[in-house]
Amino acid sequence: MSHRAIKTLGLADCIACEDTRQSKKLLDHYRINSSLIAYHEHSSAKITDKLLTMLARGRNVAVISDSGTPLISDPGFRLVYRARQEGYEVVPIPGSCALIAALCVSGLATDRFSFIGFLPSKSLQRKEALKGLQKFGHTVICYESPHRIKDTLCDAIEILGANRNAFIAREMTKMYETYLAGNLGELANLVSCDTYQQKGEIVLVIEAPNECREISLEAERILLLMLKEFSVSKAALLTAQITGLAKRTIYKKALDLTDR
Length: 260
Hints:
This protein is α/β, with parallel strands linked by helices. Helix content is 45%, strand content 15%. The N and C termini lie far apart (50 Å).
């Protein structure tokens, strides 16, 4: 919690939250007495209307979540949309973000990535979603529930292959935080053998396949330097060895650069 977040919650006339019981623990810890109202995916439109009425009366409304960043894979965006439509100022109070925190410590490429929220809960639809990721040229991040992580890893192995590098961040910033790195096959084995890895808040980070991985700006910079000294083929080979990217990918990029 930042000082700004504590101050903002203290000045709020009402705090919309997922679970008032959980949020009260946080507020009690910081001696914040602002009123609470439940606001989650099952809340009716009446709750949104009530919060907008408060804004209309000149009151300050804050939105928080039990875990992670509010409004990321969270229904609060509907409230923000309505508030902006009606001309109210909406200001973010930056804080921890699970997907960014997991990406930063994954050791996988960070120059470009896609966040896809939660994968479908049913295996058939989940496999279809994973098929759409097969040729992604950049890192993919998703959230997963503890009771589905084992099945999701199995489906990912079937569609993406057991050798695809991946990373699991579990219960970040909490007492039992855990980080697992390896390929999908290794992670599936670790999760299957340890039931503790099937509990809590989970972020799954998956690397792009080597042959599809997009060239980062740094790799392109290296390639351009190599092209000044060597032939296209030699420059591509050396750049591939330095960056770990597929030579075919680098060679294709080298041809594009020399044609400009």
